[in-house]
Amino acid sequence: MCDKTDNKVAEALEVLKTETSELIHVCPEVPVINVNETLKADWPLRFYRNFVAKNYPVVIRGGCKHFPAVSKWNSRFFLEAIPNKEVTVAVTPNGYADGLATKTTEKGKVHYFVMPEEIKMPMREFIKKMDDVSKQYICYIQKQNSNLTEDFSELMCDVQSEIPWASKAFDKTPDAVNFWMGDARAITSMHKDPYENIYCVIDGFKDFILIPPTDLPYVPYKTYPVGTYKDVMNKKCFIEDHKGEKIEWIAIDPLKRNHHDKYPQFKNATQYKVRIKSGDCLYLPSLWFHHVKQSHKCIAINYWYDMDFDVKYCYFNMLKRLSGS
Ligand SMILES: O=C(O)CCC(=O)C(=O)O
């Protein structure tokens, strides 16, 4: 009886893979449009119809190039304009803030989900640390609490507080607007968010790996104990255990070759690789898995709009249960 049910589930997941491959993920690239499209009166409706309703990403070349920030912001500008500004920096020994790491315990090596040490410092010190190649730690401004509007209000005149066509299409204003700036070695591990995301690169570039939510069965999850890095800058770096706290996290890092042998099912996941350059925007739909790398001192901002907890969300939760994730 149980085997029969398992076979039915496996068959159903196979149907999902075949259908999505044949009907949706037929093109290996994320579609790209020009910013001029977004200037047309019917764009919010077309954006909604062609991308949001279909839960499909799109790159908008030049989508934020009209922000004064694109021609102004870089590390030199911040050194002159806001050298003493106190910034909250995520510091890690390996570049993975909110990622996996190994801790040696009396039980042997244990894989943890580790959060960064958060250190406040003046902007000029943050930039100096990124330029110092001899240091043993990696810095990233990546606080996702609407830190652009909350912590950098003096920079708001160089950007927009919302993306007007996106607010119109989503019929809401952004829940958070975040500021990101960091080292080329800082990596955001594969995860998904319950947000519609308009991601704008201001300086440098970001490399995204995107995986559709329908490929959840091929994205390996495991349960990890949770910890936080401590004393990262003092060479005595250790992982402080959160005492019993556990989290389900994605076990694979697509950049690590040995992970592909360890998780062979991952080869069935559709991976879109896309570089977003200065002045470009990415619409990253809710629940899409994403892994992000960047150029050195890359600056970006993103607008998170709450997702609609609609039928797609309900189907996703069912798929989670069926695929045992
Ligand atoms: O830029 C990054 O490093 C991560 C971006 C991200 O995860 C997000 O916008 O949800």
Q: Could you describe the 3D structure shown?
A:
The protein is α+β, with helices and mostly antiparallel strands and 325 residues long. The chain has one domain (2-322): Jelly Rolls (Sandwich). It has helices spanning 2-23, 35-38, 43-52, 68-72, 75-81, 123-131, 147-151, 164-170, 257-262, 311-322; strands spanning 32-34, 58-61, 86-92, 99-105, 108-115, 117-122, 138-141, 176-182, 188-191, 195-203, 205-211, 221-230, 238-250, 272-277, 281-284, 289-294, 298-306. It has a 9-stranded mixed beta sheet. A 4-stranded mixed beta sheet has the order 4-5-12-13, with no helix packed on it. A 4-stranded antiparallel beta sheet has the order 9-16-11-14, with no helix packed on it. The chain is globular. The two termini are 22 Å apart. The relative contact order is 0.20.
Keywords:
oxidoreductase; 17 strands; 325 residues; binds 2-oxoglutaric acid; Jelly Rolls; 35% strand; cytoplasm
Chemical compounds bound to the protein? 2-oxoglutaric acid
Sheet with the most strands?
Answer: 9 strands, mixed
The mean pLDDT is 96
Q: What general form does the structure show? A: globular
What is the correct CATH architecture? Sandwich
Count up the helices.
10
- CA(first)-CA(last) distance: 22 Å
